[in-house]
Amino acid sequence: AGQSAQGAQDALDLQELLNEVVQRNRHVSGMLLVRREGGDAAEGVAPVTCELEMPDAAAASALNQAFFEGEAAEAEAIKLSGRQLVVTERREVGDFYVVCLSEGGRVAAHADSSLDIRPEVSAADFLGGGKNQGEGLSDVVHSCAEAAGAFLCPTRNWVLAVAYDAG
């Protein structure tokens, strides 16, 4: 099963996939994939980037550590394409993890900050087809970013970073 999964990954052009997602989504300023530490990806596999600088080893390690509170000093910034981003939120929805990073630690502004609605969500809601599609990070996704930032999501082989600009 491991070889067939590796074959499917080899058949998928990750660079082309990132290019297409960034090109088609006006809210995404760049994306990158770095090897997930302890994951199934081969040692030494190179990061894949689109519109973001290639991360150095320290940045790749910091992206991996961001999922675990206390793993690294919370106040330490993660350098992503010349920006210093800090963890502002960690979300766990079933087995789907999302880490929110923001420049200067600023959280997005809400259209109506008096609302604190947190519907029951699943990974399907993030990926499409769920009853609450797009509501998994309702405090962040349906708002205007006051500062640049990124969302991090782990996969079996990679850590995906999706960057956005302020506004």
Structural commentary:
It is globular, with a radius of gyration of 16 Å. With 167 residues, the protein is of the alpha+beta class. The model is unreliable at 108-119 and 132-142 (pLDDT under 50). It has helices at 2-11, 14-24, 57-65, 123-127, 138-141; strands at 30-35, 48-50, 78-80, 83-93, 96-103, 149-154, 158-164. The termini are far apart. A seven-stranded antiparallel beta sheet has the order 2-1-7-6-5-4-3, with helices on both faces.
Distance between the termini: 44 Å
Strand count, sense and closure of the main sheet? Answer: 7 strands, antiparallel
Strand order of the largest sheet: 2-1-7-6-5-4-3
Number of helices: 5
Shape, please?
Answer: globular
SSE class:
alpha+beta
Question: Roughly how much helix do the residues carry, as a percent range?
Answer: 10-25%
Q: What's the average pLDDT?
A: 77
**Uncertain runs with pLDDT below 50, 5 residues or more?**
108-119, 132-142
The value of Rg in angstroms is: 16 Å
Count the beta strands.
7
The secondary-structure element order is HHEEHEEEHHEE
> How much of the polypeptide forms β-strand, as a percent range?
25-35%
